[in-house]
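Ticket closed. Logging final result for Spherulin.
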Amino acid sequence: MFVITSSAAMTLLSLSASVLAAPQLRARQAAPTQLSLTAQLTLAGSAADRYNILSQDSDFVYDWNEAGASPFANRKTFPALVGAGVAVAYAEMPACSFSAIHIHPRANEIVTIVDGRITDYMIPELGAVNANGSTRVVVNEVSSGMAVLNPQGALHTLYNYECETGKGVAAFSSDDEGITVIAPSLFAAPDDIISEQLGAGVSNDQIDTLRMVIRANSLRVQECQKKCNITTSRH
Ligand SMILES: *[C@@H]1O[C@H](CO)[C@@H](O)[C@H](O)[C@H]1NC(C)=O
Ligand SMILES: *[C@@H]1O[C@H](CO)[C@@H](O)[C@H](O)[C@H]1NC(C)=O
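Final structure:
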């Protein structure tokens, strides 16, 4: 949901001795010796086999309080989700902050706000239009106790225009929801491709400038910072 740079909870991926002793691992001849827990669970022959690999009761718990825990609990950071078909994220958005416009390629996302108020902007797909034929943008203000849907593949971004931290829990309909951040992905293309895509007259210098300002504060967020007496840049 929110794009937060973070390292995954690597401790959850490390192999415990009991896991290495699981019978499934001895079966295949050419299998690498250091399979991640997620890989072992993916290779397991059945759900019962997965229970035997997840031998600790705590394997079924994800702890966002752990140092370095990813906001995204999914099949990679929380291996017990392998085969579950769901993932979940918890995130806190500082006052006057926003997430970069992104999509989740493999999951619908339901964001429940547990504290504060968030504005969700969602841009569906080609053909979803307003009465006058322009591209539809779905805008919703959701506050504590409300949830908003960002359908699989739809572009979306969340803004916190409030002076307080916003907190949300996002449920995903895949254990491998994935994320594509639109602006950096677009600007990863070669300059001449970008220039053609944006239209004639956009120089390489301008493209470089755009690359550098991606993620810079928007006007509305600066106004929010003024309103909230926030002096330092939050991005
Ligand atoms: C088309 O309709 C939308 C939503 O009603 C509106 O925001 C937009 O300004 C309109 N565009 C034009 C070109 O009239
Ligand atoms: C910001 O500062 C002004 C002037 O000191 C004050 O009147 C206002 O209440 C403050 N706003 C917030 C949200 O703290």
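The chain has one domain: 10-16+56-228. No further action required.
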